[in-house]
Predict the structure.
Amino acid sequence: MVIGGNLQPGELVAFYSLIWYIIWPIVNLGFTINMFSQAKASGERLLEILEAEETIRDGETGIQTEKIAGHVVFDNVTFHYGNEEGAALKQIQFDAPPGKTIGLIGATGSGKTSITHLISRFYEPTEGEILIDGRPIQAYGLKSLRSHIGCVLQESFLFSSTIQANIAYGRPDATMEEIVDAAKRAQAHDFIMELPDGYDTVLGERGMGLSGGQKQRIAIARAICINPSILILDDATSAVDMETELQIQHALREVMKGRTTFIIAHRISSLKHADEILVLDQGRIVERGTHEELLENQGLYQRIYQIQYRDHQSVAQNQRC
Ligand SMILES: Nc1ncnc2c1ncn2[C@@H]1O[C@H](COP(=O)(O)OP(=O)(O)OP(=O)(O)O)[C@@H](O)[C@H]1O
Ligand SMILES: [Mg+2]
């Protein structure tokens, strides 16, 4: 039409510009509708979490204590997660006096972690009662109770922040001396000092840049930093090599002094020094006693020992060959 003289070139340019003004919003509308439905679905799930009702609440007289002795008693505790699988713990009964070490051993799914969940009051027992220093666990204020419990878990969670902030996570007002002291006691100070920025080294997401054993020792330092009366070590040394395990165990022995400690482990070497060892099977305590007593029992513990010891023997034989 322009060549034929029916349309001015300026009109052609104006026409195309106007067409783009119309087409872009229409194309964008498609994207926007898509994003809107995605956001609506995510928003609903987010609100579900934000509005979820807390089932564990502070009692009316939440006791706030500065210090607890750490006497933990399970009185005939049965616990159900609320799914169809049946009770995760059945009639658990034990008495952990202040400062003593209790070892928990048993096959996977036997209920070891569930016991520690109940001590931190993440769940309420279905039947029976848990007493701390002679008072029911529900009598304590949740925050106060948890400030006396230190946990080191199998998969330690570190934040993408400085090492110093990670150690002081449970007690943000800790001074630098307290942080360094906690790190020293967890045998972490030396490797931290070797890092380019020392305590100010910023870690990656989930502690990237550190090995499993180093992360574990920072997690131990974090647990020490809150100076807890009750210490829970859930498989704290399962993901590390033998030498690191030895170092961590050395660190832990220092930390466990004067605290009621629950050690969960699959390796007998990690818990044989415990004051009492509870052997769990399918949510029940099937055996209890010290390492020596349990070895004489000819039960599950002795079988676990034999399996681990047999491995040990064959390794020794191979080395000799
Ligand atoms: N959050 C949960 N919701 C529902 N059931 C659970 C939950 N956590 C654990 N269970 C169930 O409770 C039982 C005991 O699990 P628990 O985690 O205490 O075992 P465990 O002895 O710690 O095992 P592992 O040695 O593998 O860590 C298992 O049958 C498990 O399926
Ligand atoms: Mg577990």
User: Anything to note?
Assistant: Residues 112-113, 234 surround magnesium ion (ligand 2) (CB under 6 Å). Residues 94 and 195 are 44 Å apart (CA to CA). The beta strands are 72-79, 89-96, 101-106, 127-132, 135-136, 149-152, 230-234, 260-264, 276-281, 284-289. Residues 9-50 form the longest helix (42 residues).
